[in-house]
Description:
Order of helices and strands: HEEEEEEEEEEEE
Strand content: over 45%
Number of domains: 1
Oligomer: single chain
Number of helices: 1
Largest sheet: 12 strands, antiparallel, barrel
Shape: globular
Distance between the termini: 38 Å
Mean pLDDT: 87
Radius of gyration: 18 Å
Amino acid sequence: MSYLLFKIFTHFGLLWLILSGLSALTSQVALADGVVVDKVYHPYVLPNEQEFEWRMLSHQNDAGNSLGQRIAYGKSITDNVMVEFYIVGERDSDGDFGLSAYEIESRWMMTDQGEYWADWGLLLEVEKVHRLNIWEVSTGLLFEKEFGRNSLALNAFLIYETGGDINSEFETEFRLQYRYRWLPQVQPAIEIYIGEDYTGIGPTFMGIQRFDGQKQLKWELGFITGLNGDDKDHILRASIEYEF
């Protein structure tokens, strides 16, 4: 009976993910105030896992060039729950780079990898903007399905922004990644992002190098092009993650 209920839940969950993405694509609702492009999350957590992570995002459009970076430390507090702390930095209009926000993020792996027809997870993230009374709370449903050497990952987020320096509002966001696991160290992918007046698509390359035990190094490099009619709207994203 529990297995039947789980299958019903997962089927409706996948339908909700797809409908959320199509709705955002067709209606172009206002979504997150920041850049939509980031990483596509996977629902997996390893027991006793620790990690250091660095992310970079360079956005070029008609308004100029913005640059953001994140440094994080994460640790699994149970066999299926991971908590990660971020420090976020951005380059301002004067070209100076400084602290812009703090984040705490938790991922819950709801199913064991390969246990059911697809793997599921949940994400909760709280962000505080530096020196401003602006808070952002994000909840996300994480989905991944592997078939052969192919992998399809979907993220659907509900975001709430509030605080004295911003108008409170709910927003949504959708991310998709189709990946071909050619080699562990080289895995080409296509990513789609849908967000605030923004729809982007582009190629991404990633890989993983495993060492002794749980030690492994992951890398990602993607180039996303906006499809909103601007003459220039390109985003370069990169990340390096060391797990141990």
